Amino acid sequence: MKKDRKIWQFLSCTTLILLATSIAQASIVSVGPTLSTTANDSADWSTFPVPTPPGGSDLGSCIGTISCGPLTFTSLTTPHNTLTLSFTDGQDGQVWVQQTIPGAPQFNGHFTDGQYLVNTLDSLAPATADSFTIQFGSGVSAFGVYVEEFDFSNPFTATVSTADGGGGSYTSPSGSNNVEWVGIADSGGIASINSVTITTTGTQSGYFLVGTAYFQSGNTTTTGPPPSVPEPASMFMVAGGIAALVWKARKRARA
């Protein structure tokens, strides 16, 4: 009887530990630029009106006022997640183009020629530091983007952060005067990320441009070899099996 009780106590503790481990396992981690080729969704900003000189057109229909609400942008690929864009101080931001499109404000940085870019600042406050927030219509499990400060000749760092999925951030290596990749993901592949915020630190902190956004709408599915650490679903299955053993042990102890 005493032996059965000890077995029951051991199995109960093991079950609780496994359940706690599986719940705590998911967290926000960094993700590399391979996401740009594997993500199932992206937004390249080209559906915004082509801006016209000088200095570009502020985004949105309410040019000339800082009372504009967030903009929405539907990504170009299935499943067409909806993005809502906003900036720290309520500015509209602008769309610029890297180098080659005639008649558009041209950025001479290090993005791919012809790429549409979101500029964090607009004509209302060209010297104000800013951050760029993207709110997703439905959760994503990973997000990444290339960033460059407007002063592209000096080193800077870029950071992407989220308060979702337990919260977390990733900051690019310092010392680069090129485009910087920043990306984050839910370690459990769960679509827990509802919004991300991008900032920079450099000679023109908060004055930066963002290239095509890549993100995994919905949960992440993998087709490669199983991960070395059990996924939460697997942990729950093991815990469920142990729970069944606990029930049997208690039943036998009462007999």
Characterize the structure shown:
The protein has 255 residues and is α+β, with helices and mostly antiparallel strands. It folds into 2 domains: 2-20 and 231-254; 31-217, Jelly Rolls (Sandwich). It contains 3 helices and 13 strands; from the N terminus they run αβαββββββββββββα. The protein has helices spanning 2-25, 35-38, 232-254, and strands spanning 28-30, 41-43, 71-74, 82-87, 94-98, 106-107, 116-119, 132-149, 156-162, 168-171, 180-186, 193-202, 208-217. Strands 1, 2, 3, 4, 5, 6, 7, 8, 9, 10, 11, 12 and 13 form a 13-stranded mixed β-sheet that branches. The longest helix is centred in the N-terminal third of the chain and has 24 residues, at 2-25.
The number of helices is 3
Q: Please outline the major beta sheet.
A: 13 strands, mixed
* Apparent shape: globular
Portion of residues in beta strands equals 25-35%
Helix content estimate = 10-25%
Radius of gyration: 24 Å
Measured distance between first and last alpha carbons: 10 Å
CATH class placement of the largest domain:
Mainly Beta
**What string gives the helices and strands in order?**
HEHEEEEEEEEEEEEH
Number of strands: 13
Number of separate domains = 2
User: Stretches where pLDDT falls below 50 for ≥5 residues?
Assistant: 18-24, 61-68, 222-231
- State the CATH topology of the largest domain: Jelly Rolls
Tell me which CATH architecture of the largest domain applies here.
Sandwich
- Assign the structural class, choosing from mainly alpha, mainly beta, alpha/beta, alpha+beta, or little secondary structure: alpha+beta
Name the average pLDDT.
74
